[in-house]
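TICKET: design request
STATUS: open
ATTACHED STRUCTURE:
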């Protein structure tokens, strides 16, 4: 009996170590993707004071490189759609394999408990209680339960990291909208103050016609930049809906993590 217990503990430790190694690589990968998405979204934030120790790309209307910065940032976002996808596919395969083994392992004691009368019978039946207790006391039951809890816990953490990474680009979409609103507000405010040009006389070396031409050029540049922000927002919205972080082929969100937690809790509660 002692030898069987020691062998069971050794097997449990080895299998749990293998599971943890595979799943920890998954957790680390999606955590890195979340951090990269967060850093990329912070580059186009509206307020620099929100994260003063992190750089910010200038997307303001008076910046000559505003449109170029917007296109460059959008290209970086497009690059992340395909960056490391083969590695991510291998990680998903490992995770699905480990999760399948954990589910099969926990299904064996669950079916034994069901066969022993876990869902029926009289609560005062001593024979039924004895059968259920004997099934729950087996080392394989506790081994399968331990592996199942570890697998589902790390799978939930993986999904939460991936869902948080997807959420970061929603904030980037909001930042583009805020930049466009600020630009439109600045143009509207300038249009409603026509007396400023009348009160400021034109210099002798710069005639009024040249000033009007410069003002029209500035208005055209601001309008073009507003169109660039709108197109970038539409493209980012499309990328956020098509190219998202997926776990086992499914888009990661909070509801997916909640489903895993609910199902796992139900199974563990029934086994115990």
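STATUS: resolved
RESOLUTION: sequence designed for all positions
ATTACHED SEQUENCE:
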């Amino acid at each position: 009996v002692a030898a069987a217990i020691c062998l069971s503990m050794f097997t449990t430790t080895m299998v749990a170590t293998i599971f943890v190694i595979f799943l920890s690589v998954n957790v680390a990968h999606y955590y890195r993707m979340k951090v990269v998405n967060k850093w990329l979204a912070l580059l186009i934030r509206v307020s620099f004071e929100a994260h003063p120790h992190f750089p910010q790309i200038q997307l303001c209307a008076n910046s000559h490189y505003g449109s170029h910065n917007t296109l460059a940032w959008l290209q970086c976002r497009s690059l992340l759609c395909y960056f490391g996808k083969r590695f991510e596919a291998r990680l998903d395969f490992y995770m699905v394999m480990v999760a399948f083994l954990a589910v099969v392992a926990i299904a064996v004691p669950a079916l034994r408990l069901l066969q022993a009368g876990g869902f029926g019978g009289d609560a005062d039946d001593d024979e039924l209680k004895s059968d259920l207790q004997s099934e729950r006391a087996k080392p394989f039951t506790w081994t399968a339960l331990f592996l199942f809890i570890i697998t589902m816990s790390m799978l939930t953490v993986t999904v939460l990291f991936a869902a948080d990474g997807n959420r970061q680009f929603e904030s980037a979409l909001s930042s583009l909208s805020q930049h466009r609103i600020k630009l439109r507000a600045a143009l509207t405010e300038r249009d409603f103050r026509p007396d400023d040009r009348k009160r400021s006389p034109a210099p002798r070396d710069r005639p009024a016609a040249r000033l009007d031409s410069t003002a029209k050029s500035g208005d055209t540049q601001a309008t073009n930049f507003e169109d660039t922000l709108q197109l970038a927002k539409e493209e980012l919205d499309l990328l956020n809906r098509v190219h998202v972080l997926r776990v086992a082929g499914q888009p990661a969100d909070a509801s997916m993590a909640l489903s895993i937690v609910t199902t796992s809790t139900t199974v563990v509660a029934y086994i115990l």
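CLOSING REMARK: The CA atoms of residues 81 and 243 lie 6 Å apart. The mean pLDDT is 78.
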